[in-house]
Amino acid sequence: MKSRHTEFHEIKTVLKEADEPMTAREILDQIESESFDSSHQIATILGTRAQYGDVDVIRERPYQYQI
Fold it and tell me: Most buried in the list 13, 14, 27, 59, measured by CB within 10 Å?
């Protein structure tokens, strides 16, 4: 099992390469790891990191995330 820090690093890499806001589903589709089971898991990690200012959350439907 990977640590949350490692999981966030994988997500962050996808967001940086995209250079535009993405939904959790879009991130899941782009990620090259089997560490993630669902877009909900990605959204949970990003929501937690947003509390510390590491991620910007665009509160539309669906939510989008950017670095």
Answer: 27
